[in-house]
Amino acid sequence: MASVTLSDVAREAGVSLATASRAINGSANRTVRPELRDRVLAAAAALHYSPDANAQAMARGRTTTLGLIVHDIADPYFSSIAAGVTTAAERAGLMVTLASTGHDPEREIAFIEVLQSQRARAIVMAGSRIEDETVNDRLRAALSAYRAGGGAVAMIGQPLFDVDTVAIENTAGAADLAVALHAAGYRRFAALAGPAGHLTARDRMEGFAAGLASRGAALAPEHIMRSAFTRDGGYEGMRELLDSGAAVDVVLAVNDVMAVGAMAAARDAGVTVGTGIGIAGFDDIVTLRDVTPSLTTVRVPLLQVGATATELTLGEPAAEPRLERVASTVVLRDSTPPRA
Amino acid sequence: MASVTLSDVAREAGVSLATASRAINGSANRTVRPELRDRVLAAAAALHYSPDANAQAMARGRTTTLGLIVHDIADPYFSSIAAGVTTAAERAGLMVTLASTGHDPEREIAFIEVLQSQRARAIVMAGSRIEDETVNDRLRAALSAYRAGGGAVAMIGQPLFDVDTVAIENTAGAADLAVALHAAGYRRFAALAGPAGHLTARDRMEGFAAGLASRGAALAPEHIMRSAFTRDGGYEGMRELLDSGAAVDVVLAVNDVMAVGAMAAARDAGVTVGTGIGIAGFDDIVTLRDVTPSLTTVRVPLLQVGATATELTLGEPAAEPRLERVASTVVLRDSTPPRA
DNA sequence: GTCTTGATGGTAAGCGCTTTCACCACCTCG
DNA sequence: CGAGGTGGTGAAAGCGCTTACCATCAAGAC
């Protein structure tokens, strides 16, 4: 409680407050005689002095905090990004303040405001935006208020706002996947497209459709199932698809977690994944690399995405919002064996 | 940059600093005339005032930060705990500061010191301790320095330090699992025991052995494989076990991630998981619920563990360190079908 | 009518640090 | 041998808030 302050240290060392501060932090253009410095350091150690970061932040006018806002930290997609962010932040001497919004844009906005209060140096926001201009406008307002206060922002996802963005190549990756599947002999396609208005899902769907089109194939509208962007959403979508009796060779789930749900649904329906029906996902979640049959997917380097976003906020602020594109690569595995 | 301060708001509203502060925060035993309060609030809104949390922390002498220290945020075990912590923290009006140590105890200590500097209200530490008294002593010292400053601490794991602890019933759960497997007809046991000195792994192993003993069975020392507490560790351990030609019915991996690695190794060796060899894990990681065959495991309510630990730090500090035991429950699935 | 009170508003004293000045020795040259 | 540096040190002014502590005023209490 009665924590020791810098003045205590100064008194103990028999120097002024100013000298103590300089000795401990090594001031920019002032030096302290080695002998004095040692005395201060010794006193600090003896008293177990721990500088008050809040006071320092206040005096220096800048903090050492970086805010990370994700939809759901328990989701492997986001926790991988978080790992990248914490690593890069630590490298830069920043602590990460984590906010998990549970997919609620209102809480996203609220957290931006809290982080603004904390005078966080930067905010990294991950997670797909949605198509709701009312909400997006408020988000935009919150972000620009934050930036007006000198904060840096990087988004991971769609380049929707005027801020630095790390964009994952959802469209291109999905197109590549479509082409690869077509090349493997698949002809009748379906998709678990996620919820309407979900931009990441939409991009992946568009890419997939475009890829198919480039090979002269197509995705029938009745083969596009809409459901939640979750494991259970994948399960539901797949069940409905199978129930509909649609004749389909392969189905794309717009993320790995949905794909795994879809695999479970197929199994429960007695359909063999792979030889019976192909299933492909997106993200290449590490934890899911060992499902059987192994899942065809599009790899997204999530740790790197997190690190890149963090670094984007750390450098000089650019005049123009920067756009960092992160390539995604198709990984064909056993869930979509070559079709004879 | 030139962020607006409370004095700006006060001037704009034509009141004193004190009144502005009281109007905005609703002081404890002071009231502000509604008319004035509205004027202040209006001014604050007009100027886009955002209180400076650092200054508030400094003036109030207490922050609204809770520190969370985990080994690896990308690990589903920890990210689930983190989800529980963020939820509980938000309920209490706290922001979570996340530190991911990469299993390095030195960084654990360093982060405790940083959190102490930030004057975080509480620290939740998750992750197995190791048997290294030198390191543990330093950790203990760092924690007690932090607590001397008024901070609360809760650990998730072994009740090793004199702090509130949420202990997962590793021993009992593993014993239950052993009994259940024995009852299912398994007789020849092996284990992927994780690294030596890893306390969680050790507890699980001891529980497993005890459970077997209670049924008159035993775990042959040569069937205990030591490897990393990771997916790859599980793979390696399993491969060695299979290579050794040991005659085994079922193998316990001390966590789910290792179990999944073991399943992969079995598959690669042409051994059928389930009918060929049983495999069981521990934790019941959500993301892994859909692996095939579905994994027998011991469920640990990780979200709840995180929430409980958080709540432990929030209430009145207890004279005695509290110990909250969280039950774990056996979940038998297809990776260990009943043995005829 | 005077005296208490309770409700309000303002003044000013910090909270623990950093940093600008001012000041003081000493040096180094011309 | 004085002018003009040059390191080193300390005093003190904040940083943006909260919160005693006072001062004021109107409404009741006697």
Automatic annotation (TrEMBL), chains A, B:
Residues 4-60 form the HTH lacI-type domain. Keywords: DNA-binding, Transcription, Transcription regulation. InterPro entries: HTH_LacI, Lambda_DNA-bd_dom_sf, Peripla_BP/Lac1_sug-bd_dom, Peripla_BP_I. It comes from the Bacteria. PANTHER family: LACI-RELATED TRANSCRIPTIONAL REPRESSOR, LACTOSE OPERON REPRESSOR. This is LacI family transcriptional regulator. It comes from Occultella glacieicola. The lineage of its organism: Bacteria, Bacillati, Actinomycetota, Actinomycetes, Micrococcales.
